[in-house]
Design brief:
By secondary structure, the chain is an alpha+beta fold. The chain contains nine helices and 14 strands. Helix 2 packs antiparallel against helix 7. The longest helix has 18 residues.
Length: 338
């Protein structure tokens, strides 16, 4: 498992959306559609196959294979053994792909995305340990263990500047598995599909009637227990969409809300006005990583970044004096960018 317990309200919403997305399909060509549980969340997959093959067992195997490489919740995974400084473990193809993309996005965003933030994620209670009593002294001591420049892969072994450093792929894992499943389907000659892993989605081709896949972006809720509502629906024209938000995963202490998004520069949860970021990209791993990075960067820095970065579009929902407000980049469907 990657990070969270099964989110059944989100699973229910995903099932409803799959029903909406497939209901209008041409009845002469029925889709193959199934759901399951993996990586601490749900998955929902729909595709069109002339042979009507059901590949769910293979999908479950792909998730298990990923966990054996890149899940910090599997004690014998490659990443867990690297975190324990096991000198006998070597990276594999899955680990290499995720690690290299993480390093690329870290470099592009000046460290706003950083997989070495794991020790801080744990002490704040958003990882695999109980929340600690956090103060500035503890955060300062852990910040010395954070910094993507302090790690590298050499001959399939992870090298760290400090043996106490730990890494976590949670902010990129679901996006990568969407891509992995997409590649598997394409290897079977299936080119019209929608893959949804915990809300990160990849859509290729179209439905049977030639209509693009459409997916929803959730409206940020005032409280984690609030009913889920759709903010907007988006067409996926051979694109991936990933969303990162602060309105469901947080804790309250002394009247203050602490979100699960940790700023690698400060070691504290981010405190700016952005509530959620949805990113469109050609692949889901890229979209997933940048959605997290933009949550750290905030609205203005993200706007500036997108002015020079091609291949990415973003839809940002933020709080402006108590009012939910939307900004989206020029290439995003229904954009309101100037």
């Amino acid at each position: 498992m990657i990070s969270r317990k099964i989110d059944f309200p989100k699973l229910f919403m995903g099932l409803i959306l799959i029903g909406l997305l497939t209901a209008s399909c041409n009845n002469n060509k029925e889709p193959v559609s199934f759901t399951g549980e993996a990586q601490g969340t749900y998955y929902a997959i729909t595709y069109f196959d002339d042979q009507s093959r059901n590949f769910q067992p293979q999908m479950d195997s792909l998730f298990k294979s990923f966990d054996l490489s890149a899940s910090v919740y599997s004690k014998e995974s490659v990443i867990s053994r690297f975190n324990r400084n096991d000198s006998t473990v070597l990276s594999d193809q899955v680990f290499d792909a995720v690690f290299n993309k993480a390093m690329e996005v870290s470099e592009e965003t000046g460290g706003a995305f950083d997989i070495t933030v794991m020790p801080l994620v744990n002490v704040w209670g958003f990882g695999y340990t109980e929340r600690s009593k956090v103060d500035s002294a503890l955060v300062d001591s852990l910040l010395s263990l954070v910094g993507y420049q302090k790690i590298k892969l050499v001959n399939r072994r992870l090298q760290k500047e400090d043996s106490a450093m730990m890494i976590d792929f949670n902010a990129i894992a679901q996006g990568y598995t969407c891509d992995l499943i997409g590649k598997f389907l394409e290897s079977k000659g299936i080119n019209n599909y929608l893959v949804d892993v915990g809300g990160e989605v990849l859509g290729k081709g179209t439905k049977a009637n030639g209509v693009p896949w459409r997916v929803a972006i959730e409206k940020p809720a005032a409280d984690a227990s609030d009913q889920r509502e759709i903010q907007v629906t988006v067409s996926l024209n051979n694109k991936a969409l990933a969303t990162s938000g602060n309105y469901r995963s947080y804790f309250m202490e002394n009247g203050k809300k602490y979100s699960h998004t940790i700023d690698p520069a400060t070691g504290f949860p981010v405190q700016h006005s952005v509530l959620s970021v949805s990113v469109l990209a050609d692949d889901c791993m890229t979209a997933d990583a940048y959605a997290t990075a933009f949550m750290v960067m905030g609205l203005e820095k993200t706007k500036q970044f997108l002015n020079t970065k091609r291949g990415l579009e973003a839809y940002i929902i933020y709080d402006q004096d108590g009012v939910l407000t939307v900004w989206s980049s020029k290439g995003f469907p229904n954009s309101n960018a100037e």
